[in-house]
Amino acid sequence: MANAQTNTNARDVDTRDTIRANGDGSKVSKAMKLINEAQEEKTEQAKEQLRGAYTYARENLTQLGERASAMATKATHTAEQSIQQRPFRYVAGASVVGLIFGYLLAKRK
Q1: What is the pLDDT of residues 3-23, one digit of tens each?
Q2: 20 to 30 Å CA-CA from 45: which of 28, 34, 70, 74?
């Protein structure tokens, strides 16, 4: 990458030397200056667009995380209430699931 940059810089210097030798340096210098200014302007515009997109994404992800956290808290609270109201139903369900897994694992051997 550095070698390609060095070659490009060397070509630019050769081109500038050739232009100065021919006497058209002022017009070309102005043109080169305009091109460099346009390039810098476009670079700044691209940076601003990227900053805006990054900020937008960060804010949306933060809001999404907060909503997910609130939903998880609500689901946990609802589950706790349901278990407190009917504890034997959940104990029986967990026992049945445990028996099924135990049966399936014992059957494999």
Answers
A1: 555 555 666 656 666 656 555
A2: 28
